[in-house]
Hints:
alpha+beta; disordered C terminus; 13 strands; five-stranded antiparallel sheet
Amino acid sequence: xxxLVVLIMSFIxxxxxxxxxxxxxxYIEANSLLxxxxxxxxxxxxxxxxxxxxxxxxxxxxxxxxAATHQELSSEELRAIIExxxxxxxxxxxxPEGKVVASSDESQVGxxxxxxxxxxxxxxxxxxxxxxxxxxxxxxxxxxSVPFHEDVLVARIDLDSFNEFVSxxxxxGETGEVLLAYRTVDGSVSLFTERRFEEEAVDERERLIGIxxxxxxxxxxxxxAYGLFDYRNVEVLAVTRYIDEMDVGLVVKIxxxxxxxxxxxxxxxxxxxxxxxxxxxxxxxxxIVSFFILNPIKKLAFDVDEITKGKLEIQLEKSSxxxxxxxxxxxxxxxxxxxxxxxxxxSSGSFLCLGDECEVPAKKISGSNEKKVxxxxxxxxxxxxxxxxxxxx
Length: 393
Protein backbone atom coordinates (compact mmCIF):
# COMPACT_ATOMS: atom_id res chain seq x y z
CA UNK A 1 0.00 0.00 0.00
CA UNK A 2 1.30 3.44 -0.89
CA UNK A 3 2.45 5.76 1.85
CA LEU A 4 0.06 8.45 0.57
CA VAL A 5 -2.93 6.13 1.04
CA VAL A 6 -1.74 5.00 4.48
CA LEU A 7 -1.23 8.58 5.64
CA ILE A 8 -4.59 9.83 4.38
CA MET A 9 -6.39 6.81 5.86
CA SER A 10 -4.66 7.47 9.18
CA PHE A 11 -5.83 11.08 9.14
CA ILE A 12 -9.37 9.99 8.25
CA UNK A 13 -9.39 7.40 11.05
CA UNK A 14 -8.12 9.83 13.67
CA UNK A 15 -10.46 12.56 12.42
CA UNK A 16 -13.46 10.24 12.38
CA UNK A 17 -12.84 8.82 15.84
CA UNK A 18 -12.09 12.25 17.26
CA UNK A 19 -15.13 13.87 15.68
CA UNK A 20 -17.45 11.05 16.76
CA UNK A 21 -16.20 11.25 20.35
CA UNK A 22 -16.47 15.03 20.26
CA UNK A 23 -19.94 15.03 18.74
CA UNK A 24 -21.13 12.37 21.19
CA UNK A 25 -20.00 14.58 24.07
CA UNK A 26 -21.70 17.54 22.38
CA TYR A 27 -24.90 15.51 21.91
CA ILE A 28 -24.95 14.42 25.56
CA GLU A 29 -24.40 17.97 26.78
CA ALA A 30 -26.91 19.49 24.35
CA ASN A 31 -29.49 16.83 25.21
CA SER A 32 -28.96 17.51 28.89
CA LEU A 33 -29.47 21.25 28.34
CA LEU A 34 -32.56 20.52 26.27
CA UNK A 35 -34.03 18.31 29.00
CA UNK A 36 -33.22 20.95 31.59
CA UNK A 37 -35.02 23.60 29.52
CA UNK A 38 -38.14 21.43 29.11
CA UNK A 39 -38.14 20.46 32.78
CA UNK A 40 -37.77 24.08 33.89
CA UNK A 41 -40.78 25.00 31.78
CA UNK A 42 -42.88 22.17 33.24
CA UNK A 43 -41.76 23.00 36.78
CA UNK A 44 -42.62 26.65 36.22
CA UNK A 45 -46.15 25.74 35.09
CA UNK A 46 -46.57 23.27 37.97
CA UNK A 47 -45.37 25.75 40.58
CA UNK A 48 -47.59 28.50 39.21
CA UNK A 49 -50.66 26.25 39.29
CA UNK A 50 -49.88 24.96 42.76
CA UNK A 51 -49.50 28.51 44.06
CA UNK A 52 -52.69 29.61 42.30
CA UNK A 53 -54.75 26.72 43.70
CA UNK A 54 -53.46 27.40 47.21
CA UNK A 55 -54.28 31.10 46.80
CA UNK A 56 -57.80 30.27 45.61
CA UNK A 57 -58.25 27.95 48.57
CA UNK A 58 -57.08 30.64 50.99
CA UNK A 59 -59.46 33.09 49.35
CA UNK A 60 -62.42 30.75 49.87
CA UNK A 61 -61.42 30.22 53.48
CA UNK A 62 -61.34 33.97 54.05
CA UNK A 63 -64.77 34.36 52.43
CA UNK A 64 -66.20 31.73 54.76
CA UNK A 65 -64.58 33.41 57.77
CA UNK A 66 -66.22 36.68 56.80
CA ALA A 67 -69.59 34.94 56.51
CA ALA A 68 -69.04 33.47 59.97
CA THR A 69 -68.83 36.96 61.48
CA HIS A 70 -72.61 37.35 61.15
CA GLN A 71 -74.65 36.92 64.31
CA GLU A 72 -77.15 34.70 62.57
CA LEU A 73 -77.59 33.20 59.12
CA SER A 74 -80.87 31.90 57.79
CA SER A 75 -81.30 29.52 54.86
CA GLU A 76 -82.36 32.48 52.72
CA GLU A 77 -79.21 34.39 53.65
CA LEU A 78 -77.12 31.31 52.88
CA ARG A 79 -78.69 31.16 49.41
CA ALA A 80 -77.78 34.81 48.93
CA ILE A 81 -74.17 33.99 49.78
CA ILE A 82 -74.22 31.18 47.19
CA GLU A 83 -75.41 33.63 44.54
CA UNK A 84 -72.53 35.98 45.38
CA UNK A 85 -69.88 33.30 45.75
CA UNK A 86 -70.05 31.12 42.66
CA UNK A 87 -67.28 28.85 43.96
CA UNK A 88 -69.63 27.48 46.66
CA UNK A 89 -72.36 25.15 45.49
CA UNK A 90 -73.76 24.61 49.01
CA UNK A 91 -73.36 26.29 52.37
CA UNK A 92 -75.00 25.10 55.60
CA UNK A 93 -74.88 25.36 59.39
CA UNK A 94 -74.43 22.45 61.82
CA UNK A 95 -75.56 22.74 65.41
CA PRO A 96 -73.40 21.41 68.30
CA GLU A 97 -74.91 17.97 67.72
CA GLY A 98 -73.85 17.91 64.08
CA LYS A 99 -77.31 18.31 62.56
CA VAL A 100 -78.04 20.65 59.67
CA VAL A 101 -80.12 23.55 61.03
CA ALA A 102 -79.90 25.84 57.99
CA SER A 103 -78.79 25.29 54.42
CA SER A 104 -78.82 26.86 50.98
CA ASP A 105 -80.35 23.52 49.96
CA GLU A 106 -83.51 23.13 52.05
CA SER A 107 -83.57 19.38 51.39
CA GLN A 108 -80.47 18.98 53.56
CA VAL A 109 -81.98 20.55 56.70
CA GLY A 110 -82.29 18.07 59.55
CA UNK A 111 -79.68 15.63 58.28
CA UNK A 112 -77.07 14.33 60.72
CA UNK A 113 -73.47 15.20 59.78
CA UNK A 114 -71.94 14.49 63.18
CA UNK A 115 -69.71 11.78 61.76
CA UNK A 116 -68.30 13.89 58.94
CA UNK A 117 -64.72 15.16 59.03
CA UNK A 118 -65.69 18.80 58.53
CA UNK A 119 -67.68 18.64 61.79
CA UNK A 120 -65.31 16.48 63.83
CA UNK A 121 -62.07 18.28 62.96
CA UNK A 122 -63.09 21.93 63.11
CA UNK A 123 -61.96 23.59 66.32
CA UNK A 124 -60.88 27.21 66.60
CA UNK A 125 -59.67 27.61 63.05
CA UNK A 126 -60.62 26.75 59.49
CA UNK A 127 -60.63 23.10 58.43
CA UNK A 128 -60.46 21.84 54.85
CA UNK A 129 -61.85 18.41 54.16
CA UNK A 130 -59.66 16.85 51.42
CA UNK A 131 -61.10 16.00 48.02
CA UNK A 132 -63.86 13.41 48.18
CA UNK A 133 -66.97 12.22 46.38
CA UNK A 134 -70.14 13.44 48.06
CA UNK A 135 -72.72 10.67 48.04
CA UNK A 136 -75.34 13.19 49.11
CA UNK A 137 -75.12 15.42 46.05
CA UNK A 138 -73.15 13.03 43.78
CA UNK A 139 -70.33 15.51 43.23
CA UNK A 140 -66.56 15.49 43.66
CA UNK A 141 -65.94 18.15 46.25
CA UNK A 142 -63.87 19.70 48.96
CA UNK A 143 -65.47 21.18 52.06
CA UNK A 144 -64.37 24.12 54.20
CA SER A 145 -65.67 24.53 57.74
CA VAL A 146 -65.24 27.30 60.34
CA PRO A 147 -66.56 27.76 63.87
CA PHE A 148 -69.76 29.82 63.86
CA HIS A 149 -70.47 30.86 67.44
CA GLU A 150 -71.58 27.56 69.02
CA ASP A 151 -72.25 26.04 65.60
CA VAL A 152 -70.22 25.13 62.51
CA LEU A 153 -70.46 26.88 59.14
CA VAL A 154 -69.65 24.60 56.19
CA ALA A 155 -69.22 25.38 52.49
CA ARG A 156 -68.80 22.87 49.70
CA ILE A 157 -66.82 23.55 46.52
CA ASP A 158 -67.30 21.55 43.33
CA LEU A 159 -63.97 20.21 42.05
CA ASP A 160 -65.18 20.76 38.48
CA SER A 161 -64.45 24.45 39.04
CA PHE A 162 -60.73 23.62 38.97
CA ASN A 163 -61.00 22.77 35.28
CA GLU A 164 -60.79 26.43 34.37
CA PHE A 165 -57.48 26.66 36.25
CA VAL A 166 -55.83 23.95 34.15
CA SER A 167 -57.52 24.53 30.79
CA UNK A 168 -54.89 27.08 29.74
CA UNK A 169 -52.12 25.01 28.14
CA UNK A 170 -49.93 27.89 27.03
CA UNK A 171 -46.33 26.75 26.73
CA UNK A 172 -47.24 23.05 26.80
CA GLY A 173 -47.10 22.43 23.06
CA GLU A 174 -49.35 20.03 21.19
CA THR A 175 -49.34 17.21 23.76
CA GLY A 176 -48.88 18.94 27.11
CA GLU A 177 -51.61 18.90 29.75
CA VAL A 178 -52.30 19.39 33.44
CA LEU A 179 -54.09 16.81 35.57
CA LEU A 180 -55.54 16.97 39.08
CA ALA A 181 -56.70 13.89 40.98
CA TYR A 182 -57.40 12.44 44.41
CA ARG A 183 -57.63 8.94 45.87
CA THR A 184 -61.05 7.51 46.57
CA VAL A 185 -61.96 5.54 49.68
CA ASP A 186 -60.94 2.29 47.97
CA GLY A 187 -57.55 3.77 47.00
CA SER A 188 -58.16 4.19 43.28
CA VAL A 189 -57.22 7.36 41.41
CA SER A 190 -60.01 9.74 40.48
CA LEU A 191 -59.22 12.50 38.00
CA PHE A 192 -61.46 15.55 38.41
CA THR A 193 -60.07 17.63 35.55
CA GLU A 194 -60.64 16.91 31.89
CA ARG A 195 -58.10 14.82 30.02
CA ARG A 196 -56.89 16.40 26.81
CA PHE A 197 -56.83 13.10 24.95
CA GLU A 198 -59.81 11.36 26.48
CA GLU A 199 -60.58 9.50 23.25
CA GLU A 200 -57.08 7.97 23.29
CA ALA A 201 -57.27 6.66 26.85
CA VAL A 202 -56.73 2.92 27.19
CA ASP A 203 -58.51 0.53 29.48
CA GLU A 204 -56.84 -0.24 32.80
CA ARG A 205 -56.23 -3.81 31.64
CA GLU A 206 -54.42 -2.57 28.53
CA ARG A 207 -52.20 -0.14 30.38
CA LEU A 208 -48.47 -0.84 30.33
CA ILE A 209 -46.91 -2.08 33.54
CA GLY A 210 -45.73 0.81 35.65
CA ILE A 211 -46.99 3.69 37.73
CA UNK A 212 -48.84 6.66 36.29
CA UNK A 213 -47.34 10.11 36.88
CA UNK A 214 -50.48 11.12 38.81
CA UNK A 215 -49.98 8.13 41.13
CA UNK A 216 -46.50 9.38 41.98
CA UNK A 217 -47.99 12.78 42.78
CA UNK A 218 -50.61 11.22 45.07
CA UNK A 219 -47.85 9.21 46.76
CA UNK A 220 -46.27 12.59 47.62
CA UNK A 221 -43.32 11.93 45.30
CA UNK A 222 -42.68 15.43 44.02
CA UNK A 223 -40.17 16.02 41.25
CA UNK A 224 -39.42 15.15 37.65
CA ALA A 225 -40.58 11.78 36.32
CA TYR A 226 -38.78 10.22 33.34
CA GLY A 227 -39.78 7.16 31.35
CA LEU A 228 -43.33 6.91 32.67
CA PHE A 229 -46.39 6.16 30.55
CA ASP A 230 -49.64 8.07 30.84
CA TYR A 231 -53.25 6.97 30.43
CA ARG A 232 -52.67 6.59 26.64
CA ASN A 233 -49.65 4.28 27.05
CA VAL A 234 -47.50 7.12 25.70
CA GLU A 235 -44.11 7.86 27.26
CA VAL A 236 -44.13 11.29 28.87
CA LEU A 237 -41.90 13.71 30.71
CA ALA A 238 -43.77 14.86 33.81
CA VAL A 239 -43.45 17.10 36.85
CA THR A 240 -45.43 16.01 39.92
CA ARG A 241 -46.68 18.05 42.88
CA TYR A 242 -48.73 17.18 45.96
CA ILE A 243 -51.18 19.72 47.42
CA ASP A 244 -51.31 18.62 51.02
CA GLU A 245 -54.30 20.59 52.31
CA MET A 246 -56.57 19.19 49.59
CA ASP A 247 -54.85 15.76 49.42
CA VAL A 248 -54.66 16.26 45.67
CA GLY A 249 -52.00 15.28 43.15
CA LEU A 250 -50.94 17.68 40.40
CA VAL A 251 -49.20 16.59 37.20
CA VAL A 252 -47.86 18.73 34.37
CA LYS A 253 -46.71 16.54 31.51
CA ILE A 254 -45.78 16.49 27.84
CA UNK A 255 -45.05 13.67 25.40
CA UNK A 256 -41.34 12.90 25.42
CA UNK A 257 -41.43 12.57 21.63
CA UNK A 258 -42.53 16.19 21.32
CA UNK A 259 -40.40 17.57 24.13
CA UNK A 260 -37.15 15.84 23.23
CA UNK A 261 -37.62 13.63 20.17
CA UNK A 262 -37.69 16.34 17.48
CA UNK A 263 -34.80 18.24 19.01
CA UNK A 264 -32.81 15.02 19.45
CA UNK A 265 -33.29 14.17 15.77
CA UNK A 266 -32.11 17.65 14.83
CA UNK A 267 -29.05 17.21 17.04
CA UNK A 268 -28.25 13.86 15.44
CA UNK A 269 -28.59 15.27 11.91
CA UNK A 270 -26.43 18.22 12.86
CA UNK A 271 -23.83 15.90 14.39
CA UNK A 272 -23.71 13.75 11.23
CA UNK A 273 -23.19 16.82 9.03
CA UNK A 274 -20.42 18.13 11.28
CA UNK A 275 -18.69 14.72 11.37
CA UNK A 276 -18.83 14.54 7.55
CA UNK A 277 -17.36 18.05 7.25
CA UNK A 278 -14.59 17.16 9.72
CA UNK A 279 -13.75 13.97 7.79
CA UNK A 280 -13.51 15.90 4.51
CA UNK A 281 -11.41 18.62 6.13
CA UNK A 282 -9.10 16.11 7.82
CA UNK A 283 -8.72 14.17 4.55
CA UNK A 284 -7.69 17.38 2.81
CA UNK A 285 -5.17 18.13 5.56
CA UNK A 286 -3.83 14.58 5.29
CA UNK A 287 -3.46 14.95 1.52
CA ILE A 288 -1.54 18.25 1.93
CA VAL A 289 0.68 16.85 4.69
CA SER A 290 1.40 13.71 2.68
CA PHE A 291 2.67 15.79 -0.21
CA PHE A 292 4.80 17.83 2.18
CA ILE A 293 6.37 14.59 3.43
CA LEU A 294 6.40 12.65 0.16
CA ASN A 295 8.07 15.28 -2.04
CA PRO A 296 11.42 15.17 -0.12
CA ILE A 297 11.24 11.36 -0.05
CA LYS A 298 10.59 11.19 -3.79
CA LYS A 299 13.46 13.64 -4.45
CA LEU A 300 15.76 11.58 -2.24
CA ALA A 301 14.75 8.36 -4.01
CA PHE A 302 15.33 9.99 -7.43
CA ASP A 303 18.81 11.25 -6.43
CA VAL A 304 19.79 7.84 -5.06
CA ASP A 305 18.60 6.24 -8.30
CA GLU A 306 20.75 8.70 -10.29
CA ILE A 307 23.77 7.86 -8.11
CA THR A 308 23.28 4.16 -8.85
CA LYS A 309 23.51 5.09 -12.53
CA GLY A 310 26.99 6.48 -11.99
CA LYS A 311 26.30 10.16 -11.32
CA LEU A 312 28.51 10.35 -8.26
CA GLU A 313 28.73 14.13 -8.41
CA ILE A 314 25.17 14.44 -7.06
CA GLN A 315 24.90 15.80 -3.53
CA LEU A 316 21.71 14.88 -1.64
CA GLU A 317 19.75 18.00 -0.74
CA LYS A 318 18.89 19.05 2.78
CA SER A 319 15.37 18.57 4.10
CA SER A 320 13.39 20.44 6.73
CA UNK A 321 12.06 17.11 8.00
CA UNK A 322 14.38 15.84 10.70
CA UNK A 323 14.10 12.11 9.92
CA UNK A 324 14.57 12.60 6.17
CA UNK A 325 17.57 14.86 6.82
CA UNK A 326 19.12 12.15 9.01
CA UNK A 327 18.64 9.64 6.19
CA UNK A 328 20.13 12.07 3.64
CA UNK A 329 23.14 12.70 5.91
CA UNK A 330 23.73 8.96 6.22
CA UNK A 331 23.51 8.48 2.46
CA UNK A 332 25.83 11.45 1.88
CA UNK A 333 28.40 9.85 4.17
CA UNK A 334 28.09 6.57 2.27
CA UNK A 335 28.44 8.46 -1.02
CA UNK A 336 31.53 10.29 0.27
CA UNK A 337 33.06 6.97 1.34
CA UNK A 338 32.26 5.54 -2.11
CA UNK A 339 33.93 8.47 -3.88
CA UNK A 340 37.00 8.16 -1.64
CA UNK A 341 37.23 4.43 -2.40
CA UNK A 342 37.13 5.15 -6.15
CA UNK A 343 39.85 7.79 -5.85
CA UNK A 344 42.12 5.55 -3.81
CA UNK A 345 41.74 2.47 -5.99
CA UNK A 346 41.64 4.28 -9.29
CA SER A 347 38.60 2.23 -10.21
CA SER A 348 35.86 3.42 -12.49
CA GLY A 349 32.18 3.58 -11.82
CA SER A 350 31.63 0.56 -14.09
CA PHE A 351 34.06 -1.43 -11.97
CA LEU A 352 31.74 -0.81 -9.05
CA CYS A 353 28.74 -1.76 -11.20
CA LEU A 354 27.46 1.82 -11.33
CA GLY A 355 25.61 2.75 -14.47
CA ASP A 356 24.82 0.49 -17.43
CA GLU A 357 28.19 -1.35 -17.51
CA CYS A 358 29.61 -3.67 -14.92
CA GLU A 359 33.36 -4.48 -15.22
CA VAL A 360 34.95 -7.46 -13.45
CA PRO A 361 38.47 -9.04 -13.72
CA ALA A 362 38.70 -11.94 -16.20
CA LYS A 363 40.85 -15.06 -16.03
CA LYS A 364 44.28 -14.94 -17.61
CA ILE A 365 44.09 -15.80 -21.31
CA SER A 366 47.28 -16.62 -23.30
CA GLY A 367 49.44 -15.35 -20.44
CA SER A 368 47.98 -11.81 -20.33
CA ASN A 369 45.75 -10.04 -17.80
CA GLU A 370 42.37 -9.11 -19.30
CA LYS A 371 39.05 -7.87 -17.98
CA LYS A 372 35.56 -8.98 -18.84
CA VAL A 373 33.18 -6.17 -19.52
CA UNK A 374 29.48 -6.90 -19.22
CA UNK A 375 27.20 -4.47 -20.85
CA UNK A 376 23.47 -4.51 -21.23
CA UNK A 377 24.04 -3.09 -24.71
CA UNK A 378 26.39 -5.82 -25.98
CA UNK A 379 24.78 -8.91 -24.46
CA UNK A 380 22.84 -10.97 -26.96
CA UNK A 381 21.73 -14.52 -27.36
CA UNK A 382 22.71 -16.81 -30.22
CA UNK A 383 20.38 -19.32 -31.68
CA UNK A 384 21.61 -22.02 -29.27
CA UNK A 385 20.81 -19.81 -26.34
CA UNK A 386 24.53 -19.14 -25.59
CA UNK A 387 25.79 -15.66 -24.72
CA UNK A 388 28.57 -13.94 -26.72
CA UNK A 389 30.77 -12.09 -24.29
CA UNK A 390 33.26 -9.83 -26.08
CA UNK A 391 36.54 -9.29 -24.29
CA UNK A 392 37.97 -5.86 -23.82
CA UNK A 393 41.72 -5.55 -23.31
